[in-house]
């Protein structure tokens, strides 16, 4: 598997960084020449993953969030969002649609949206140690490109 | 993001403009609560044609508006969602609870 290009960005879990994270991901993704719809899907998935870190991983504190993006085989975008926060006790339950511990400001649809907008979604978490969400999206070549 | 509102004959139209994420959502929900308290509308329309981006925080806002309107005995629906919000609405299945109208 050839990993041709990557970036790694680290930022504090402040909600003002949600917009920055998805804009940075979109800017990196443009090298794959995605459609507007694909770009929207990538921004949405990143927004969900980063929001989870801010709301759930570090509920009372500000902690470190790391976002890594890489291109695999010239057409797959892999996005990893990692935190060193409280972790998820039951990943299966957290991924169920409408399940949330965030009160009525949250919809409980974050993982559902990541799952439906990306081709693959993997969540690794350890209680008290943190969570890593890794998502992949294949960017299809468009007709007339290059 | 910006929230603009227009009221006419029992109908409050709330225009959401810009990007709606978790960072913006608490302020946005509070603004909508204040508008509903002020106008006590029969119908509330969430107009999303100028909403460039929305994540699941937007779904929470729509659900909350729906619940507040139900408590008042009123109706709520979504109008003219832009492409990206439309995909989030579709993925969430919220359109089974709150109708989506296209009036363009």
Q: What does this protein look like?
A:
- The complex is a heterodimer of chains A (146) and B (104).
- Chain A has 146 residues and is of the alpha+beta class.
- Chain A has one domain: Heat Shock Protein 90, CATH 3.30.565.10.
- Chain A contains four helices and five strands.
- Chain A has a five-stranded antiparallel sheet with strand order 1-2-3-5-4, covered by helices on one side.
- In chain B, β5 (75-79), α3 (83-92) and β6 form a beta-alpha-beta unit.
- With 104 residues, chain B is α/β, with parallel strands linked by helices.
- In chain B, strands 1, 2, 3, 4, 5 and 6 form a six-stranded mixed sheet that branches.
- Chain B has a single domain, classed as 2-Layer Sandwich (Transcription Regulator spoIIAA), CATH 3.30.750.
- The two termini of chain B are 23 Å apart.
- At the A-B interface, α1, α2 and α4 of A face α1, α2 and α3 of B.
Question: Gist?
Answer:
Chain A has helices at residues 17-29, 36-57, 91-94, 110-117, and strands at residues 3-12, 64-72, 76-83, 120-126, 130-138.
């Amino acid at each position: 598997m050839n990993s041709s290009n990557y970036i790694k960005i680290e930022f504090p879990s402040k909600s003002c960084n949600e917009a920055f994270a998805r804009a940075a991901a979109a800017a990196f993704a443009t090298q794959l020449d995605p459609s507007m719809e694909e770009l929207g899907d990538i921004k949405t998935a990143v927004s969900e993953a980063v929001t989870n870190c801010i709301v759930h991983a570090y509920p009372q504190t500000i902690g470190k969030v790391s976002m890594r993006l890489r291109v695999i085989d010239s057409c797959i975008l892999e996005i990893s969002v990692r935190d060193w926060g409280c972790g998820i006790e039951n990943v299966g339950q957290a991924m169920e649609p409408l399940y949330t511990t965030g009160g009525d400001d949250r919809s409980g649809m974050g993982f559902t949206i990541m799952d439906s907008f990306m081709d693959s979604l993997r969540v690794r978490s350890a209680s008290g140690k943190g969570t890593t969400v890794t998502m992949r999206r294949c960017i299809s070549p468009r007709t007339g490109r290059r | 993001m910006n929230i603009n509102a227009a009221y006419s004959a029992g109908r409050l139209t709330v225009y959401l403009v810009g990007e709606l994420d978790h960072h913006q959502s608490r302020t946005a929900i509070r603004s909508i609560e204040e508008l509903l308290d002020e106008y006590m509308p029969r119908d509330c329309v969430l107009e999303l044609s100028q909403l460039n981006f929305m994540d699941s925080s937007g779904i929470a806002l729509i659900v909350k508006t729906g619940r507040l309107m139900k408590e008042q005995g009123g109706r709520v629906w979504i109008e003219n969602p832009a492409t990206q919000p439309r995909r989030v609405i579709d993925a969430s299945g919220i359109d089974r609870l709150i109708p989506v109208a296209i009036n363009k």
